Amino acid sequence: MAFERWLPTLALLTAAGCYTSVNADEAGGTAGETVGDGGDADTSDGDGDGDGDGDAAELPSPSPRYYRLTHEQWENTVQDLFELSAPTGHSELFRADPQVAGFIFDNDATSLEIDEALWTGYRIAAGLVAEQVTDDPDLLAKLMPPEGPSEAERIETFVRSFGAKAYRRPLDDQEVATLTELFVAAPPYYSGVSDSFVAGVRHVIEATLQSPFFLYRIERSETIVDELVPLDDYEVAARLSYFLWNTMPDAELFDAAAASQLHTAAAVEAQAQRMIADPRAGDMVVRFHQQLLEAEKFETISPSPNFFPDAPADLGELAAQEHEHFIRDIVYGGGGGLAELLTSSETFVNDDLADIYGVPGVNGDEFTFVELDPSQRKGVFTQVGFLAANSTSVDPDPIHRGVFLAKRMSCLQIAAPPDGIPPLPPLEPDQTNRERVAAHTSADQCATCHATLINPYGFPFESYDAIGAWRTIDNGQPVDTTASPFVGEQAVAVAGALELVEAMAASEAIHECYTMHWAEYAAGRNAVPDDWVMIQRLGEASLAQQQSIQELLVALTTAPAFLNRAAEELP
Amino acid sequence: MNKINKRPKHSGKFGRRTFLAGAGGVAVGLPFLEGLVPREARAGSDLVDPFAIFFRQANGVAAQQSTALGDEPERFWPTTHGPLTPETVAGRAIEELSDHLDRLLVVSNVNANYFDYADGHANGALQGLTAQGPVVPGQGGDSEANGESLDHRIGRELNPDGRDSLFLYSGKNSGWLGGPCVSYRGPGNRRAALHNPLLAYQTMMGLDSNQLEELIARQTSVNDMVRDQLQSLVSSPKLSSNDHQRLQLHLDSIRDLENNLTCSFGVDELAVLEGLSPGYDSDIGDEVLTAAMAHMHVAALAVACGYTRSVCLQIGSGNDGSTRYRNLDDNSLMENYHYVSHRRASHDNSGDVIANADLLHSMVDRQFAQTFKYLLDLLEAYELPDAARLIDCGVCLWYNDNGNGPAHTSRNLPTVMAGGANGFLKQGLYMELNNGDDTVNHARLLNTIGSAAGLRDANDEFISDFGDPNFDRTPLLELLA
């Protein structure tokens, strides 16, 4: 279950069945304790900086020790391990992981398993990679040890060098011996390989790619120091690389780990800053936001040709492209933060999208940087993708727009709707879409959630139609975009979507919610109450210091929770 | 504009070379099974152990009902209880199975419980093979089932070395309830499905090279290393229960390769498989069902060879909400199936009314029936050395996890069984449970099918422990031959 922010002012709604809190036992807290109690700035015991001054300590929460690589991580890791020019594509041999309810991202460590089907895929892929690498003289040359005084020494050099990269840590002597045995035994297994040394290399590659030490990112540290279990340098390197790059550590990280230079926050900060500047971090940032903002849903955009005859047939694809350009530009083009994500009027459009946005002078299929009319457009939620994906083929869908913003961006918890909801009736003459939805959700059992939490987040976007175009008239009537959504702990009166996103950008609760999602992605698990001190500190800094997303990520990597394991294990 | 920096995408198409090179070196001709019989097969009528194949459809069927849009006639169920005849199925979707009427057991009034899933599809799909409620109540589309599914239980208890049963999925790999959603290892532990039929075959075969003896030998040495490593990891006292469970599954999943080419497709069958497979991730109904037929080829081979005692084929996501099936009258594409089942052009009943939606729904039912028939034809075509047919060794269940269209009820779940499981089940009948009353009996049905597939309790009796213990779980003796 996702960790949701507790809003004391909405406590009445709990009794009404709409707003539910996290199961404290399941979330690791004390029965009866509310999630946000320790995180409220005014009521917490301290500032959460972990400086030992009596503040609420910022400690890591218990977490898994075994993180199976996602299929994308497997591809990236194999590519980097062998310095390939492109991914192998062999992850197509792997069955898809199940989409487990309650976790947004694709890296939920507790659900990433290896069953027989995936094991078979791994095994076959390992053989194919080994064959590809050893059949290519250039690739093979990168692995071959220098000529030495004896073949035994060359074998050991290769095994230690390659094995350390594959296992992402130095091998112990027993592991060297095991791989050496495989190396020596190899020639009969590869009758088509004439060079026995190459056969040994191939067999070791094939074996290591099937090893749990390759397939999982493993944290083995156990020693408790000051109530924490500090990760060793190699474990820190792997946390950094798989979080920021979605792949294995590079040579510089390995060197830093070997030199025990990843023990301090300052050293980790320097590495994180270096890594975030790398294009691989850009890919990660885009992928994070695609999952957070449900960009995959854009492909379902299908406006009615009767009502929108000029809408491009590939509107969903265009929206997805705009989304990627926008996210990359926010994070890397201007060094923006959450505030810019929510309020920037700058984006990228082709001619079709320009028509929808009412931007003149854009021709052709190529995406071009533009500034949209800031009186109509601010941020990602006023763009075509979010708006059209949360519409029917004819009308905007304030319910789904509202549910998404309330749950995903404000971290409000809203119970699932009951079964048997009657259909939304047809529009009556002179009735607006808002009026229809408001009337339809006015019954007591609906209004509990809709009137307070959902509709106020959706109605401000009634100024955008089902393909995301600006509108002021709906069914012959002026659109009404006023509402009072809960942005943080207060209901905030807004005149429309632009005021709403400005209010969100200025809300500590929204910054904390966004930070929580990053923390979940970094940890590969849902947040739990004990994470709140860190989330609150980082969220506050994101707002108060108007941090860029890059700065937020660096701050996350230097938090005590990132550099240590909890002394307590998961049950 | 900013330049987009990306890792270059691999151009790899999942090709036959990637995983099957040489695997089909020994041609095995259907329909004769002699070449397919596992080496340890016993003589006589026990050549193939009983098995269960589950074929799941969503959204209910076009049964007689009255809705806000008017009365809808019966288009699915046979006309009268009793023996199934061409007359009793005429005009009904089950008519598509006329070639197999003497092997069918159609059961009405199978009633599931209304657990607090807060969604009719979750209640149907997640309960369908588990007979369990949710892990956390009231989560709607974010629900998970609170128990193991029957297909997995059969595999866990009856498969060689507890090997995973096959869980196959055809349709878009996303959507309501996350796409594949009916098979569970245990509470909240949803299984990954095999989506591409070629991957399913790869998993069953496990072989990928012409140089089989070399491959087997070198993989044995690799397996030894990996098993040692995993044994060491699993024995660590620092493991959480989740870590331990995942590592143990990994350890249990490592298989020693065998030269089992006597139980593989020949070149011609491989070509058929490849031809049927590409649409497994489509939202076009014909492509989805064709890929399901590919899965059926794998399923038939898998049960014939004793690779698994159960297979589950799920078609479409929790509400099959993106697949567009064919209008049988004019071959056009309908609206997506979930819309059709709602009779309106929206997922939430807010859309415009779809004309003749109940008729369209019945056309979807017929296409599922035709696909089920494909499976039955395949199994019938497998002739055992003792002249028995594979279809008679096991039971195939075509079920729908909702009873009807817009309401998506959990009562009167469509239940069509084929094959007697080596004489375990009645056949050729249309039966009604509990005299048509409202008794919840879904768990009883699953315990019956589990017993038909060979599950037994500690006293070697039929199982009666599957599903939520708050409900009657004794087998339905009236269904037994």
TrEMBL record, chain A:
Residues 231-359 form the DUF1592 domain. Residues 377-472 form the DUF1588 domain. Keywords: Signal. Residues 156-219 form the DUF1595 domain. Residues 68-133 form the DUF1587 domain. Residues 39-56 have a biased composition (Acidic residues). Residues 494-562 form the DUF1585 domain. Residues 1-24 form the signal peptide. Residues 30-64 are annotated as: Disordered. This is Cellulose-binding domain protein. The lineage of its organism: Bacteria, Pseudomonadati, Myxococcota, Polyangia, Nannocystales.
TrEMBL record, chain B:
PROSITE patterns: TAT (PS51318). InterPro entries: DUF1552, TAT_signal. This is Tat (Twin-arginine translocation) pathway signal sequence domain protein. It comes from Enhygromyxa salina.
